[in-house]
Design brief:
This protein has helices at about 10-20, 40-55, 65-75, 85-100, 110-115, 150-155. The longest helix is centred in the first third of the chain and has 19 residues, at about 40-55. It is built from six helices and no strands. About 50% of the residues lie in helices and about 0% in strands. The chain has a domain at about 10-105: hypothetical protein mp506/mpn330, domain 1, CATH 1.20.1480. The chain is mostly helical. α1 packs antiparallel against α2 and α1 (about 10-20) runs antiparallel to α4.
Length: about 160
């Protein structure tokens, strides 16, 4: 099976440019993110995220999803020992990049990095990382509203 090639259109690049100019590590109460703890951390984290976004935008038009995932891995290394909220936030940035370039799933990359494992039984195309970073079988794509807690409880409840 050959790897899926991306189609980095002008629209995708425009969405990446928009993401590049956004404040990704400022307080975001809607997503319960308190913001980076210090202004120095915020500048550092924005730099890492903007570097990731710029590198994705510079990929050839027909780059593969694995090329994007390689860039994710390099960026995530910078957050390895950061606060959990900041680690979750960079995963949201990665999800925004995936949305922009048409990648539906990180195939467990983010879950493995953030939690140390992928969610068992969450096979390819049975996923959702849109709202919670959790993949589940009842995903309805970008309109999915199943929260991590709802998913976890439904799978774990007796």
């Amino acid at each position: 099976m050959s790897e899926r090639q991306l189609n980095l259109t002008d629209d995708a690049r425009a969405r990446l440019r928009e993401l590049l100019t956004s404040d990704k590590f400022a307080e975001d109460l809607e997503h319960l993110y308190p913001g980076a703890a210090t202004s120095e951390q915020r500048v550092e984290y924005e730099s890492y995220a903007n570097d990731l976004i710029s590198r994705v935008a510079e990929l050839p038009d027909t780059a593969a999803a694995s090329d994007v995932f390689d860039l994710f891995r390099a960026c995530l290394r910078n957050f390895e020992y950061k606060d959990t909220e900041d680690r979750e936030r960079i995963c949201i940035v990665c999800e925004c990049v995936m949305d922009a370039v048409g990648i539906d799933s990180s195939n467990g990359l983010q879950n493995e990095w953030l939690y140390g494992y992928d969610i068992p039984g969450s096979g390819r195309n049975a996923h959702c990382t849109r709202t919670s970073g959790i993949r589940h079988d009842s995903c309805r794509g970008n309109n999915c509203a199943v929260s991590w807690a709802t998913y976890w409880l439904s799978e774990k409840a007796p």
